[in-house]
Amino acid sequence: MTYDTINTVPSTLSALKAALRERGIFPKKRLGQNFLIDQNILRLIVKTAAICERDIILEIGTGAGSLTKLLGERAHEVLGVEIDRGLFNLSWEVLTPYKNIHLINMDVLKSKTAIDPRVEEILKGWLQSNRGLTLKVVSNLPYSISTPAIIAILEGELPVELMVLTLQKEIVDRLAARPGTKEYGVLSIIAQLFAEIHIVRTLPAKVFWPVPQVESAIVVLNVDKEKAHKIVPDYRLFSTIVRAVFQSRRKTLLNSLFMLNLPFINGNKETLSAVFNRLGIKPLLRGEALDLEGFTALTGEISNLIKGKTNG
Known about the structure:
alpha/beta, Rossmann fold, 2 domains
């Protein structure tokens, strides 16, 4: 293996292993590091995202730069965020020729609930400087942060319009889950409020290295934050209700929301029960049986009652 080969973006498993070995890098299981090594799948991801020169791309987890390179060949600007110092150094070395690829070595999440403000500042700056550009998230998302990262992006202020993600199949199933299934929960409801979800295809474990114990899938989220906030003007209340309902899946809707001590209830379950009855929702249902429309209707009704109590 020559020096030039080691310092180019690895496109085969042997090249990847050599690049890692030369730098003393070993995949970290705790960070969910599984490298996507199938070039056809990488090209499919880029094609699915329909990337063009009017796009700004956020990639979370650049790894060895294989997907990053393909993104940089098509997009206006790419911001790659890599938490692992060794992989950051590797991707920095091999992606040097691409002047529109910008890499930062950090955790994309400031906390479990928010994107780091430094990432937001860079992306917002690009968007403000170049009117008419589209922000997309395209990533082989590390398994260890998949759920919090997706929720943080959807709930945050970044004007993301499209997300094309490679995820553990279990998480993809939760994104697309319907009421009444075991997969249905907080992630399902939040994702389906903000986006239309389309599963592109399932990926066998063998297209990754190290080979994971689970299947993965490519999923598309067509995001419309403006529409979501029109449907649910009081998103903070909506989020509080959804999370309370699924905190204990065995509790009824009535019991879950009663524990929130909403101001208009005054410790009276009958008052809360009347809210459900007005909406035609059975108060003794469990949360997993209530669809997105039910949660939005419930939020609207409770929001009006809280405002009435506050104004009164």
